From TrEMBL:
Keywords: Transferase
Stored InterPro entries: Glutathione-S-Trfase_C-like, Glutathione-S-Trfase_C_sf, Glutathione_S-Trfase, Glutathione_S-Trfase_N, GST_alpha, GST_C, GST_superfamily, Thioredoxin-like_sf
Native organism taxonomy: Eukaryota, Metazoa, Chordata, Craniata, Vertebrata
Domain of life: Eukaryota
Recorded name of the encoding gene: Gsta3_1
Name this polypeptide is given: glutathione transferase
Organism from which the protein derives: Tichodroma muraria
């Protein structure tokens, strides 16, 4: 297979959104196929496209890749966003894993029962302000550089700007106590590839709504 990477998922954020972010930040155009029915999903499994019977599925460089972390690691390596040596790569991986823990809470939030939404929103705010964002505020302050690792744009920077914007959608003032992250957000948002991704009409998906939740439950129902 040649040409643009092909992404198969639902027409919404979910686990594919971080992959869209990473490709877009690397300046890579991609095509998307959207799952809308359980039959489409079952056919992918039957045809042997999904190694572990799960999406995201990304077709790139002749491979049919599944597992979000593996896909993103490959993209980061291919486009030189994974550090210059093993130590930088280890730091990037640690930061990415931490951000992924926060993003998992955001990912599951739309599926919260109505009576749990307020509590879950408070948990996201608490974790972001007390556990995750202080780490990156300290890192940026200590080395005084624009990027998290090696003074060079990396996968970790892409994950962090995605997380900041996702939390801000739910807690608009979340960065009020983090001046370094405020500067980071502005710089990242003005990088040409990211700025383009943030414009209306880009492949970036809107926050999950009731229709998206309904589609997810329909496609993946047991």
């Amino acid at each position: 297979m040649s040409g643009k990477p092909r992404l198969t998922y639902l027409n919404g954020r979910g686990r594919m959104e971080s992959i869209r972010w990473l490709l877009a930040a690397a300046g890579v155009e991609f095509e998307e196929v959207y799952l809308e029915t359980k039959e489409q999903y079952d056919k992918l499994i039957k045809d042997g496209f999904l190694l572990f019977q799960q999406v995201p599925l990304v077709e790139i460089d002749g491979m049919k890749m599944v597992q979000t972390r593996a896909i993103m690691s490959y993209i980061a390596g291919k486009y030189n966003l994974h550090g210059k040596d093993l130590k930088e790569r280890a730091l990037i991986d640690m930061y990415v894993e931490g951000i992924s823990d926060l993003m998992q809470m955001i990912l599951m939030f739309p599926f919260s029962p109505p009576d749990a939404k307020e509590k879950n929103l408070e948990s996201i705010k608490e974790r972001a302000t007390n556990r995750y964002f202080p780490v990156f505020e300290k890192v940026l302050k200590q080395h005084g550089q624009d990027f998290l690792v090696g003074n060079k744009f990396s996968w970790a920077d892409v994950q962090l700007i995605e997380a900041i914007l996702a939390v801000e959608e739910k807690v608009p003032a979340v960065l009020s106590g983090f001046p370094q992250l405020q500067v980071f957000k502005t710089k990242m948002s003005n990088m040409p590839t990211i700025k383009k991704f943030l414009q209306p009409g880009s492949p970036r998906k809107s926050p999950p709504d009731a229709h998206y939740v309904e589609t997810v439950l329909k496609v993946f129902k047991k």
